Amino acid sequence: MGPDPKQGDPVRTPPQRLVEPATDLDMRPGWRLGDAQLEADAIDYWRRLGNLPADTPPETRAKELVAGCYRDGSLIGVLSARAVPLELLRARFFMLRSSVAPEARRGHAAATMAYYARDHLERWAADHPAEKMAGIAAILESRELAGLGRVPFWPGTGLRLAGYTPDGRQIRISWFRHYRLD
Amino acid sequence: MTEPAAPDSSPAAPDGLEIRAAWRRDDPQIEADAIEFWKRLALLPPDAAPEQRAKELIAAAYRDGRLIAVSTATIEWFEHLRARFAVLRGATDPAHRRSRAQLALAVPSRQVLERWALDHPEEKLAGGLAFVETAEWGDFARLPVWPESDLALIGYTTDGRQVRAAWFDHYRLDDRTA
């Protein structure tokens, strides 16, 4: 038997967030909420930007919304997720996708959405233990990341580098605090 | 970010344990104690020379002046993460298995290695890595992230052991891997 993890040993102080959340944005939760207004806004957003793959109907993607990011009442970013098994880790993760309108980039919207989404999904997972969701994950598109991609652990979301896809993109994961391995 | 301190010893460790740092210090007393510990308890595989393993000591846990547990590491390239890691090992005197000595070693061992990595940037040491036999760790192995060391599950070996990795806070990936 190993040591008892519930005992109160000193725990290292985690580093500070690399990017502070924006204070001029309003986050709207979406995961499994059937929020018709958010879905309609998101569908309009994707159609306006034309940034969904051709084979992805926006109405389908709208059902995967985790959060919408509004500035002055306009949707400027969305974060969606799919629940997928990661064989590498023998567990189910929320695979995140994030999009920010070109005119709103460099305003910390992506980080703000990611922080919000992690908390939102972690609470949902804790409230739905039968779903056995272990954490969040992301495949990094490095062109959007600049220097952040060189930092292996992101304190704000807990996303850490855990491997690479066959085509060389980073696989990042963050385990939920309540989750226990089988 | 807070830079890690590298304690020489940690008398405040739980359960009356004293933790002594050993990484790259060639401390003859700790090395001799460790060699005696490994030989007495026959804890090393037949092909591992205690004198060589002693050069891999990170830290040792003492109780009442007697060495009861050690942490050791070798620095190896880990292709899966495309970086160099300290591959961690631990050994505890079976009579002290419930002493939580390995837990007491976890924080100072990380601090010692991280401090050394900061002082030796040419080594490009990215963090710590452990291969964990789940049966040996009981409920602790069910935690995806170990809070003391930040060792997080990132995969499994082909024979079913957990692969856990902890990145040092200061480390940055090479441009070609980022």
Salient structural properties:
heterodimer, A: 182 residues, alpha+beta, eight-stranded mixed beta sheet, 3 helices, 8 strands, 30% strand, globular, disordered N terminus, B: 178 residues, nine-stranded mixed beta sheet, 4 helices
Averaging pLDDT over every residue of chain B, what do you get?
91
Order of helices and strands of chain A: EHHEEEHEEEE
Question: What would you call the structural class of chain B?
Answer: alpha+beta
Give the strand tally of chain B: 9
Radius of gyration of chain B, in Å, reads 16 Å
The largest beta-sheet of chain B arranges its strands as 1-2-3-4-5-6-9-8-7
Biggest sheet descriptor of chain A: 8 strands, mixed
Overall geometry of chain A: globular
> What gap, in angstroms, lies between the N and C termini of chain B?
21 Å
**What is the C-alpha radius of gyration of chain A, as a whole number of Å?**
17 Å
Q: Count up the helices of chain A.
A: 3
Beta-strand residue percentage of chain B: 25-35%
The helix/strand series of chain B, from N terminus to C terminus, equals: EEHHEEEHEHEEE
Strand proportion of chain A, as a percent range, falls in 25-35%
Classification by helices and strands of chain A: alpha+beta
In short:
Chain A has 182 residues and is of the alpha+beta class. Chain A is built from three helices and eight strands; from the N terminus they run E-H-H-E-E-E-H-E-E-E-E. Residues 1-10 of chain A have low confidence and may be disordered.
How would you portray this structure in words?
The complex is a heterodimer of chains A (182) and B (178). With 182 residues, chain A is of the alpha+beta class. Chain A has three helices and eight strands. Chain A has an eight-stranded mixed sheet with strand order 1-2-3-4-5-8-7-6, sandwiched between helices. Residues 1-10 of chain A have low confidence and may be disordered. Chain B is built from four helices and nine strands. Chain B is globular. The chains are: A alpha+beta (182), B alpha+beta (178). Chains A and B meet through strand 7 and strand 8 of A and helix 3, strand 7 and strand 8 of B.
